[in-house]
Amino acid sequence: MIAFNLFEKGSSLIYAGEEFGNPHLPSLFDYDPVQLTGPYDFSMLIKRIMDVKHEQINLFTKGAYNVTAINEEIIKLRYQNSMQQITGYFAIHPFEGGIEADLENGIYKDVLSERNIVVKNNKLVFNGEPVIIIN
Hints:
This protein has helices at residues 2-7, 43-55, 57-62, and strands at 64-69, 74-80, 85-91, 97-100, 106-109, 116-120, 123-126, 131-134. By secondary structure, the protein is an alpha+beta fold. The longest helix has 13 residues, at 43-55. The radius of gyration is 16 Å and the shape is globular.
């Protein structure tokens, strides 16, 4: 959900400690230091998404924005202009399996994980992790 939130149009917000999966909800009005530890560390994911948004600033600020539900578990977000597009696939509920992808058959690079994503017969295999493809 952090990846989905950061990829959405507009400003992003990471709540105190959220980047580490910290379950403590700090007070907004009292002294309550944020613990910068927790069961997860999403800091590299956050940095990579923000880097992509800065590298593709014109696409994110001036491109057409579209949100589509692929199924009950996966949401697709796309920014596009006349020259290129960037598409993100995000699980809002746990899901692994084949999903519809309106991309041409071929091999694409997921800019988050740097792994190859194969699109065949307009489907890609989703492993539960967010995927962002620039083409």
